[in-house]
Structures are given as structure tokens and as C-alpha cells.
């Protein structure tokens, strides 16, 4: 059955991409052409479909050809905010590859990524059991406590260095063992005002997200991370807030990326983050009493839901765009093929 679905997916992808590009097929098209389609569709969320597909295929691209197209997307005043951020993220990677670290670092500052973390790890994740296991930090968060981790090791919260040129956090270098492990990450977010926002993130493994005392999002999926895979509504109270991420890894690279946006996807500017407890001017107990859930009336742009709705109400083109969005962002477990199911 899986082979049949894969065959159907590529047959439909070949036919539809031929009609869209009018030159080459899905598998043969130059990566830069996907960027050009993203630029042509920059006013709506379908641009994310082409950007995420480019992100999956860009090993074959010419960086010197790709950056000018990304610049067109970034500089256009009518580019949808989520496509703007994704284009900036792609450009960041290309600048790093070219050795232009200063410009890459400047772009990171523009998109409200959370880069300051404390980490507590490792805890066991044998047979992916760690997602359901409620370890002690979920019951009693104490930054002065020594916890019992994997193999009864004594572990405590420690600072992670801030990455200057990348928006994603790679945990493999800081946690041993990194495979079959669970980590808790904490960042203190200070907000000038109380506001409903959106936490957008990408994760290589299962995760749970807590804001103050509230669990505000989770997924048991294990798959490759991709920009803005998940979106969760949150409430940032005025003053300090405690973001805690429980992240699980099985095999392979252990990565995540998190940022805070307004409902449309623009970065939230009136916040800052720290991993320095000495800079937190409120007691942990008082922060934990703050509500972390957005109001019931809060509406925000969720690209997956919007593109799925377009596919349900549209035709072949809309289904193709939803399918390649799922192919590129992979907001499902690697054992599933929800991208293929769109075409079956």
C-alpha cells in the first residue's frame, strides 16, 4: 500500500508540476524555479508550499542564483509575513555557507527567535517512552535542585551558549547521550505588555510546550524539523514568563527552533529573553501563577489549516500546493505519509 501511495504521489506531482512550470517535472525542475513560484505567489500562503519544497531540494541550487530571488521576496511589501520570515531563514543559511556570518546574524535578530536557554538533561527516552513519562521538572520546577537523570546521574539546569548565526538549536553537542533521551529547555520571556501571541516552532522529535503553569502544545511525532512546522496560541503576561520545552530524541540529529509572532506572523518586537536567573526580577512562584493560554477569541494564521481548507474547497492546483507543503514541512510522524494521502 505504501508503494502504491508513493507511486500515486509522484504521478500526480509530475503531472501537476508540469502544468505549473510548463517546462520540467517535480523531480527535474531546478530548485530556483520553486523560489520563483514562491515569489509569484508571495501575497498568499501558497508561497509557503513552494518555499518549503525548495527547502527540501535546495542542495541542488546555485546559491548565487537563489539569493537574488529570495531578496525579491524579502523586499516586496506585499509578501505575506510567514513567507517573509521563511525566505529570511533560507537566506541566512546561504549567507553562512558563503561565509557572511555578520549579515546572517543580523537577519536572526529580525525574527523574534528564542535563543537563550537553560537545559536540564538527559532523562530516559527508551522506546520513545519519554513523551508520556512525567519527569520531575513537570511536577516541580526548581532551578536550584539537583535532579536524577538517565542511569541515576545527578543533573542540574545549566546555560546553553547562544548561537549567533543560526536560528535553530542543535542539542547533540551539549547532551550525552543524545540518542534515546529527553531534555527540558527553559527560557525567560519578558513582555512589555500582556498580549496574545503565536509560538511557532520546528522539532526533530516529540515535544511538549509549557508556558508558566499551562501546557500549550505538544506532538508525539518524530520527523525532520522544518521552518514553522507547528503553531500554538499563547498568552504572554506583562513582565516575566517561563517557557519550558520538553523535547524528546530517538536517533539522529536533535534540533528545534522556536519564535514568537503576532497573529499574522510578524515578529513580536516588545519582548526579550534571557537564561540568566539573576536578571529575572520576579519570583518563580509568582510567574508560574500567570496564565499561559491565549483567550478563546484569539484568531491567528495557521498555514497548515488554511492550505488544507484551500485544498478541500479548490481544485488540482490547491491540492498540489497543500501536498507539497506537507512534503516540505512534515508536520507528522515519519512513519506516516500524510503528504501522499492528499493525492490518493
Description:
This protein is of the alpha+beta class. It contains eleven helices and 13 strands. It has helices at residues 2-21, 31-40, 46-57, 63-75, 81-97, 101-108, 136-139, 284-288, 303-313, 316-329, 338-341; strands at residues 118-124, 147-148, 154-155, 158-159, 169-170, 181-191, 195-203, 207-211, 214-219, 230-236, 239-249, 255-261, 271-274. Strands 1, 4, 6, 8, 9, 11 and 13 form a seven-stranded antiparallel beta sheet that branches. The chain has a four-stranded antiparallel beta sheet with strand order 5-12-7-10, with no helix packed on it. The chain has a two-stranded antiparallel ribbon with strand order 2-3. β2 (147-148) and β3 (154-155) form a beta hairpin. α2 (31-40) runs antiparallel to α3 (46-57), α3 packs across α10 (316-329) and α5 packs antiparallel against α6 (101-108). The longest helix is centred in the N-terminal third of the chain and has 20 residues, at 2-21. The chain is globular. The termini are close together.
List keywords for this structure.
single chain, 344 residues, alpha+beta, seven-stranded antiparallel sheet, four-stranded antiparallel sheet, 11 helices, 34% helix
Amino acid at each position: 500500500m505504501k508503494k502504491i501511495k508513493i507511486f500515486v504521489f509522484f504521478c500526480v506531482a509530475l503531472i501537476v508540476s508540469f502544468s505549473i512550470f510548463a517546462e520540467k517535472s517535480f523531480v527535474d525542475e531546478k530548485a530556483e524555479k520553486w523560489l520563483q513560484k514562491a515569489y509569484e505567489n508571495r501575497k498568499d500562503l501558497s508561497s509557503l508550499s513552494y518555499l518549503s519544497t525548495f527547502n527540501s531540494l535546495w542542495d541542488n541550487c546555485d546559491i548565487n542564483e537563489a539569493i537574488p530571488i529570495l531578496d525579491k521576496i524579502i523586499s516586496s511589501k506585499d509578501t505575506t509575513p510567514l513567507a517573509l520570515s521563511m525566505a529570511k531563514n533560507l537566506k541566512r543559511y546561504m549567507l553562512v555557507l558563503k561565509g557572511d556570518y555578520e549579515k546572517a546574524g543580523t537577519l536572526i535578530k529580525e525574527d523574534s527567535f528564542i535563543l537563550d536557554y537553560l537545559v536540564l538533561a538527559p532523562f530516559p527516552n527508551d522506546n520513545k517512552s519519554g513523551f508520556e513519562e512525567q519527569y520531575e521538572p513537570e511536577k516541580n520546577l526548581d532551578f536550584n535542585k539537583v535532579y536524577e537523570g538517565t542511569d541515576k546521574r545527578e543533573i542540574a539546569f545549566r546555560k546553553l551558549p547562544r548561537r549567533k548565526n543560526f536560528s535553530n538549536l542543535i542539542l547533540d553537542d551539549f547532551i550525552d547521550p543524545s540518542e534515546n533521551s529527553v531534555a527540558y529547555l527553559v527560557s525567560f520571556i519578558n513582555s512589555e505588555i500582556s498580549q496574545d501571541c503565536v509560538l511557532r516552532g520546528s522539532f526533530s522529535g516529540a515535544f511538549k510546550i509549557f508556558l508558566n503553569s499551562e501546557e500549550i502544545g505538544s506532538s508525539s511525532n518524530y520527523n525532520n524539523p522544518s521552518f514553522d512546522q507547528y503553531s500554538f496560541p499563547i498568552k504572554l503576561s506583562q513582565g516575566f514568563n517561563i517557557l519550558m520545552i520538553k523535547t524528546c530524541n530517538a536517533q539522529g540529529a536533535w534540533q528545534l527552533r522556536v519564535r514568537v509572532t503576532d497573529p499574522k506572523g510578524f515578529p513580536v518586537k516588545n519582548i526579550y529573553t534571557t537564561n540568566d536567573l539573576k536578571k529575572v526580577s520576579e519570583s518563580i512562584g509568582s510567574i508560574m501563577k500567570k496564565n499561559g493560554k491565549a483567550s478563546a477569541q484569539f484568531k491567528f494564521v495557521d498555514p497548515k489549516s488554511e492550505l488544507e481548507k484551500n485544498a478541500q474547497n479548490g481544485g488540482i492546483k490547491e491540492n498540489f500546493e497543500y501536498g507539497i507543503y506537507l512534503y516540505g514541512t512534515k508536520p507528522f510522524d515519519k512513519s506516516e505519509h500524510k503528504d501522499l494521502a492528499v493525492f490518493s
